[in-house]
Design a protein that fits this description.
This protein has 221 residues and is α/β, with parallel strands linked by helices. 35% of the residues lie in helices and 19% in strands. It is built from 9 helices and 9 strands. The structure holds S-adenosylmethionine. S-adenosylmethionine binds at residues 84-87, 109-111, 113-115, 129-131, 133-138, 141.
């Protein structure tokens, strides 16, 4: 899978793309992630990428030309172009899984007051929000997309089966997890997890998943 990111702040991605599972997946070639500096497509000698909003109002809006130019330079027939936007459809587990089936994703990061609407209308295939709040820019949202999508790409996670029991995978939240020590500050690990009875452990985990989901996310049922 290939992911291209178009941003005014490419350096923001340095640590995220070099650490942990993502860093290893990129280094091994399992995943290809490239970050493109939108400023390179800026206009005039100041490489300008924004301007005042037509109709007046606060702040600056990102002009369409640099974004169209940057994306058209990267795009091919396989590309799925995503504009990160708080007005987009909310990214959820099933949306992440669907994105992971794409061969090539291009992520456009907005800044300032946002992006000229013609980008959403005539360039992007989808608009995605990572939550009902407003960030200063699309970079952190793009990182969320890259990390969540990459976990579905074969070879990125050490053990793909861990995806199957994780929160959100079957419309449920995960059961509580414990590790050593069995006693800590007077708090014990549930007896059943120490019993060695796999059937009972599975039943306990399923019941706990149901309970946690019912309590925390009644909207799931
Ligand atoms: N004025 C815009 C509005 O009210 O919808 C908000 C613009 S925001 C300050 C600047 C950029 O941050 C957006 O263009 C988008 O790329 C990114 N952004 C902000 N919140 C986001 C969210 N919840 N999900 C995805 N991207 C977001």
């Amino acid at each position: 899978m290939r992911i291209d990111i178009v941003t005014l702040f490419p350096r923001m991605f340095d640590s995220v793309l070099n650490a942990s599972l993502l860093g290893r997946a990129i280094e091994s070639g399992t995943l290809e992630v490239k970050v493109h500096d939108l400023r390179a497509h800026g206009l005039g000698k100041h490489r300008s990428v924004d301007d005042e909003p037509y109709g007046g109002g606060a702040g600056m809006v990102m002009r369409p030309e640099p974004i169209f130019d940057a994306v058209e330079e990267i795009r091919d027939e396989q590309s799925h172009v995503v504009l990160l936007s708080p007005r987009g459809s909310l990214l959820r587990h099933d949306g992440v899984a669907r994105l992971a089936e794409r061969e090539h994703i291009i992520l456009i990061c907005g800044r300032y007051e946002g992006v000229d609407e013609r980008v959403a209308e005539f360039l992007a295939d989808a608009e995605l929000s990572i939550g009902d709040y407003v960030l200063a820019g699309g970079e952190l949202a793009a990182m969320v997309v890259v990390e969540s999508v990459s976990r579905f790409v074969p070879g990125v996670m050490g053990n793909m089966t861990s995806l199957e029991s994780e929160s959100h995978s079957q419309g449920l939240l995960e059961y509580p997890q414990y590790t050593r020590p069995a006693q800590y500050r007077g708090h014990s690990v549930p007896e059943v997890l120490l019993s060695g009875h796999h059937g009972e452990v599975d039943r306990w985990r399923r019941a706990q998943s149901d309970r946690v989901t019912r309590e925390r996310r009644p909207d799931f049922s």
